[in-house]
Fold this protein.
Amino acid sequence: MADTRDTTNASATTGRPAILLDCDPGHDDAIAIVTAARHADLVGITTVAGNAPLERTTYNALVMRDLLAIDVPVHSGSARPLVAEPRAAPFIHGESGLDGADLPAPTTPLDGTDGVEFIIDTCRNSEGIWLVPTGPLTNIAIALRFAPDIADRIAGISLMGGGTFGNRTVTAEFNIWADPEAASIVFGYGGPLVMAGLDVTHQFQATPTRIAQVAALPGQLARVLTDLFNFFASTYLSRHDPGSIQGPAVHDPLAVLALTHPELLDREAHHVAIETMGTLTRGMTVIDQRHLVERRESNCDVLTKVDADTAFDAIVEAIAHFAK
Ligand code: BDR
Ligand code: CA
């Protein structure tokens, strides 16, 4: 039966979606944290191994919490995928996960190493939270397996991952490739699901003009983020054919903006399954786009188009809000 949950996003009290961000910072994860802190009710941050080892993605999340001076709990979660070996992405994000900027050391301690339990408890204690994973889906999958009841309590899951083409392999996007078994659990969980895949995130590039918008803002946060954008741009540009992109794809904030600024994104309902077996296709999101009666019932809103200028303005506004 179709899910009839109200996914119009708003929390009853503030009119903004309540978001638990599960991330692996990561340059674009850092921007997702800023975006969620400004435009949503950010109820917590959990970390996962992905772009860098868990210890470092957690450190980076704590750095971002300090830079924003927000009072949001940070809990570390899974140090490795369910089945696959952990494999980071230093060729995009550097060894630290956030290379390129002079990061101030965290001044506030981690709130716990119980990321999965934190996700479960948060969803049990408060109905209508959006889970927003922007890294490998390990924590979310384990939470859904240990506590299947949370599937009915959350508003939904809005994730960055997948697409009709890959970036880690020909067919697989990094977050899904990193833990396909976890992704398979999440895509099969049965509730509302939004997918910001590469088809839409590659429309959202940090061009030199957009990075200059950030550089023009005052203060330490803007300075750090400008340096991060410039590093992210250098790795992206060095890995792509000249002229094929204008800047790095700012993937992860789109999973947040899909909830906070839904009018800026087009979406199509499709059935999406995860390939966990294929020699050439492990980690692929198999999107059923057939116009045939036998196509499978949709389980996912796939984002297809973004108003990139307005969406980037929302990010600049978020950074400006915290700039001092
Ligand atoms: C995804 O992989 C990571 O490199 C980014 O942070 C993003 O979540 C893009 O494929
Ligand atoms: Ca990420």
